[in-house]
Amino acid sequence: MNYEILYIVPNKYSETEIKAVDEKIDSILTDNKAAIIKTDHWGKKKLAYPIKHYDYGYYTLIIFSAAESAIAKITEKLNLNQDIIRFQIVKEIKKSPIIKGKKKIKTIKPSVLVKKEESEAKIEKPKEIKKEEEKGIKKEEKIKIDDLDKKLDELLEETM
Question: What domains does the chain contain, in order, with CATH numbers?
């Protein structure tokens, strides 16, 4: 089964020291009968939040194959390793055959088709406009600020 491990080495190490840490991780994997398929060094990146007082870390991704029983042993040894501040092992997901193929997505057609004229006739006015028309208020009418102040004062007096 193929797995991926992503681990972060704190930025207290130099580029040459990180190679030694990578070799330790590789030896942990090979000691547990894992075959390393690919190693990808992502370089120094800013962490999303400080981990153990470090703001930056060197990210490395390793794709390897191993038995499921070996993952627990690898995890245990990596937890004891002081050279890495975080790691995560996940199963590598195989690509779905749907992604590879060129299958079309079925579109759902509406059961009842509405003609253009009917759909335009069915458009209703918003409730606010209906209420304004019922009260006889026109949109173009502008209310003066003084009138608004008087109405507010009246409403406040009624509530007290």
Answer: 2-93 (3.30.70.60), 125-159 (no CATH)
